[in-house]
Structure formats: C-alpha cells, structure tokens
Records
---
Amino acid sequence: MMTADRKDTPPARQAPSGFLRAVWAVAWKDLAAEMRSRELLSSMLVFALLVILIFNFALELNPSILRTAAAGVLWATFTFAGTLGLNRSMAVEKDRGCLDGLLLAPVDRSAIYFGKVISNLVFMLVVEVIVLPVFAVLHNNTAIFDPGFLLVALLGSLGYIAVGALLAAMAVQARTRDVLLPILLFPVTLPVVIAAVKASNGFMDGLAVTEIMPWINLLFVYDVIFIAVAFMVFDYVVEE
C-alpha cells in the first residue's frame, strides 16, 4: 500500500547535484559538438573580425570619430556575433531533432536553459578574447585590458546571452526564426547594450570608477533579474 502511494506521488524537484550535472551535460554536449565541427565558432569569429575591419577602415579618416565610436563599434560586433551564435545553436538542435530529445529527458527543463547559456557564453567569450587584441592594435587603445573593462565585457555578454537563450528557444519554433530572433532580442537587450557601451567608454576615456559604477550596477541588476525570469518561464516557453 505504501509502495502504491509513492508511485502516485509526483516526483520531487531535482536535487542540486543532479541539476548541476544536467546543466553541465547540456553545456558539454554543445562544446564537444563545436570542437568537432567548429562551424559555429568559426562563423562568429569571421563575422566579428569583418565587422571590426570594416568599421576601422570606414572611420579611419576621422580619428576623433573613431575614438568616440570605439565602444559602440566593439559592442555592435559582440552583439551581432552573439546573435549569430544563439540563432545557429538553437536551429541546429531543432533541425536535427535534438531539441525534442532534450525536452523528453527526465531533468528540470531550466537545466537546458542554463546549459545553453553556458555554452553560448563560452563561444561569445572566445570571440571576444580573439577580437579584443585585434581591436587594441587597430585602434591603438590598451584600456580594454583594464580589469574593470573585462568585467564589463563579462557582465554585458552574460546579460545578452541570458536573454538571447530564452528568446532563441521561443523563436526556434517559427519558420522565420532567423529574422524573428533579432527583432525580439535587440529591443529587450537595449538596456544592457547601452550600459555596456557607456561603461566601456568610461574606461577608454579614463574616467573615475565612481562615474562608471552606476552603469556596472545596471549591468549586474539586469543580469540577475533576467536570469531569474528566464529560470521561471523557460519551462512554459519551450512547451509550444
């Protein structure tokens, strides 16, 4: 009788250790697949370097404009490359039928979300690690290696990927997903992009940390709020 009661009882929420293993399994699956194919990372990297070079030659004749627009150019490169990676990452799962398998796995579906966030964040950070030295050479600006600037890059990338992974899971079901994701993503991530550009400009211009802290605080609050929201609603987003 007690056994029957246990069977009728809904399963308990996944233990923290099991949840973390599920998150790592999803992230490692994406990273291992990318290490074998190198399709996603190479396309993101080539795209980012092309954007940097195009902007550099377009603004080369006016150094004052180049210095003023440097942070905007850098974050435009990061966001476009990140969007390309998010779209491709979810599209591959859908086209190969892997998304259905992930949804049928006996794990909390938010583990899928956090796994996707980790893998896409790694891809975006790898692109940034390669692009930043190129940017420093082309623009003769070493301020981007300041620890504060690197913190801004991390917080800005995390906020962009956190929202992007949620919206990519929503848009992947649509036929026009390649167009739909940027339409949904750019307005929602506008605060994090503006804060990242302002904070980056502050470090490039040598402003005091106290003047930059409001923008860093905004990035931190944005990241916390949207990760929490995504954690609560991801299950409903992927239900279709």
Note: The first helix runs from residue 2 to 8.
---
Amino acid sequence: MNKKLLVVPVIAGALALAGCAGMSSTEQRTLSGAAIGTGVGAAVGAVTGDWGWALGGAAIGAAGGYIYDQQKQKEQRAYEQGVQAGKSQTQKK
C-alpha cells in the first residue's frame, strides 16, 4: 500500500484523540464516529480510487456517533430514574 494513502486515516485518528479533552460526550462521540468513518472511507477510496468515500464515511460516521451518544444518554436517564424510584420506595418503608 502506498504510504500517501495512509496519511488521511492517521491524521484523522490523531485529531480525534488530541481534540477530545474539553468536549462533551456528544461532541466526542460524534467526532470519533467521523474519524472512524473517514478512516474506513479513505481505505475504501484507496482501493477504488474514488476519494469521495472518505467524505461519505465521515458524514455517516458522524451521524452514527451522534445517534449512539443519544442512545447512551437515554439509557443513563432511564438508569437514574430507576435508582431514584428505588430510593423513594426504600424510604417509604
């Protein structure tokens, strides 16, 4: 594989890891999804010769990361509601 083809996924991964320090979980997961999608798209683009795959992969990855984050937040809210319901039931006894 040509070394030039590896540059895009390596840079995307480095940016994803370096830029996550002050971000919310939604921003981190969206960026991580975009970075992973870009890497996969770049790999497909390297094989097919069409670099539009990297852009499409980034968009799909970002959307996937955002949707994943929303699901995780929903699960966390449900968990917290269950904990509160359990606490209130034990206090009534």
Note: The mean pLDDT is 84.
---
Amino acid sequence: MADNKKISVAVIKRLPRYYRYLGDLLNVGIVRISSKELSEKMNITASQIRQDLNNFGGFGQRGYGYNVEFLYNEIKKILGIGKEYKMIVVGAGNIGQALVNYTDFESNGFKIVGIFDVNPRLIGMTIRGIEVYDADKMEAFIKNNEIDIAILTIPKTQAKATAKKLVECGIKGIWNFSPMDLELPKSIAVENVHLTDGLMTLIYKTNAVLDK
C-alpha cells in the first residue's frame, strides 16, 4: 500500500483495468505473468505498469513477474472491493433503469437498494424487484439504510440541488450521470460521467482514422 502519498488520478483510473484483466487471466488458469506480457494485453507500456504498481508496493518478483491471483487480490483490497456497498439511484428514466438492470454491480459488492424519482408515472413501478419511491422519501431512506453511494441520472437543472441534499443526508460518494460537473466539498467523492463526451471522442478518433 502507498505510504499516504498522493496517487495520481490517472493511476487510480487504471486500477480497475488491471483488476478486470487479471480476473480474465485467472478465469483461464494463468498463474503468473510478466509486465511485458500484461502490457501487450492491456496496450500499456511495461514500464507504466511497473510504475503504477510501485505506488502500492510493487508486488512483482525479478525473473518471475507477477503472481496473477496475488496481484488480483491486492488490487481488490486497494480498490476496496470485497465488502458490500449500498447504493441508490436518483432518476428512474432510461439510464437509471439500465443501471439498475446491470447485474455485474452485485458481483463486485455494489448493491442497489433504492430508486427515487419525481415523476408520478414512474413512482410505484419496480425494476428488478426494487420499487421506485417518491424523491420526498429519499432523505429518510438514506438515513435508515446507511447508504454509501448515490447514482445521479437526472436532468442538469436538478443535479446541483439534489447533490447538495445527498451530501446533507450523509452520502460520501456520488456517481454523476447528469450533464454537469458537480462542485462539492473535498470530503465527498464524485465521479462525473459525460456520455456525450465519450461519443465525441469516438467521433474524433473515427474521423482521424478516416483521414489517414
């Protein structure tokens, strides 16, 4: 583990990729792998992999490489995967429903236990057995169920006020799918997801390929 030194966001964002690729290697029975072999699979340089992992202790052995299962479990601990995290979804529209229906969350300990919306047509419906509640009940639900993470899939106009309310209710992590970056206290972890940004990046890459 890193000795309380600040780890760059770029390194943190690569950790889930390492975890995913190592899991795939475990599933096909790979016992050990070198940084060079891992770099070829992940399209990251071997030196970058070593630098990233050295932030947390290295884990490799000269002449051997990495024990896949050991490294997988160490990254799992670094990421905090292994215990259960209770989540709610705020916004039961198309994106919210798609996230609730994504069953892989649960295999990593992320459990959606509540869904909230302001739309009378959505309140009362169930998604994978989870009822959509009126947003007015959100505060009491969070406090009574010790919710860790809130997922926002609501319009831009509602995002700021809703995030403020979530923070006041004790939420420490927000996964934000609304089309705006949230400005919250540093004690609150926020991950902003802008779907159109990804699409525009893809279009740029597509045009760059076509221009070659």
Note: Strands lie at 32-33, 66-67, 85-90, 110-117, 126-127, 130-134, 149-152, 173-176, 189-192.
